[in-house]
Amino acid sequence: MLKMSKSEHVHLKLLCHETWLKFLRVTKQYLPHLARLCLISTFLEDGIRMWFQWNEQKDYIEATWGCGYFLATCFVLLNLTGQLGGCVLILSRHFVQYACFGLFGIIALQTVAYSILWDIKFLMRNLALGGGLLLLLAESRSEGKSMFAGVPSMGESSPKQYMQLGGRVLLVLMFMTLLHFDPSFFSILQNMVGTALIILVAIGFKTKLAALTLVIWLLAINIYFNAFWAVPAYKPMHDFLKYDFFQTTSVIGGLLLVVALGPGGVSMDEKKKEW
């Protein structure tokens, strides 16, 4: 077995570092656009579904809550217009902050209306989705600040830093729902690697690399386990897998924002610069 000398090891390390920096430079232009598109995908899909399943959604809310025809119709209409309108504003980069607050409201409304509050798995995924929106909100604040580039600044604003921290912590909740507690070697290995990566993202250490690794891992899991296109549309499992697929895609969008923007001021990566 061949062994590398110390100089060869250092050279390889520098080569990997340069390759990583080159990747970040090349993707810097379009990665935020891809991240936003992935992030709003679940809202876009759900808004379209509200249109095509108008009567089913209305009847479900009316039967579950006994709120009557008018309130059930208002609920479906609010979900449809709020989600599609928010997606259009985010993609067009107009009133992004208002769109994010509106989508936060939609998440809260659906959490109560569909009794997600009592389902830990779906609650954690909704919180992870909220984490992605927090990161998008932080990005929009950054864009707003850049309009006043000539104005003296006291440094990065604290609200943005803490939004990025909160977004990172909430995003990792998605991976908590993917842990499998069985004694097989593959599951144990997956749990160990996954746990290590989500801790790195949460504390902000080697954040971009850890987030990109999680993107690749989550993308593979999403395509393999949530292949709704392989299930006939008339089966209930089709809608369930479709919902799961787009929610996971939105979390991937949040992680891509972490790759594009970095961890923010409240992170070990940022503190290392001061050491």
Describe the structure.
It is a single chain. The longest helix has 27 residues. The protein has twelve helices and no strands. With 275 residues, it is mainly alpha-helical. The chain is globular. α3 crosses α4.
| N-to-C span | 38 Å
Secondary-structure element order, N to C: HHHHHHHHHHHH
The structure class reads mainly alpha
Average pLDDT value? 83
Radius of gyration, rounded? 21 Å
Can you tell me the overall shape? globular
Number of strands: 0
Low-pLDDT residue spans: 146-156
Identify the quaternary structure here. single chain
Residue share in β-strands: under 5%
Q: What attributes characterize this protein structure?
A:
single chain, 275 residues, globular, Surf4, transmembrane, transmembrane helix
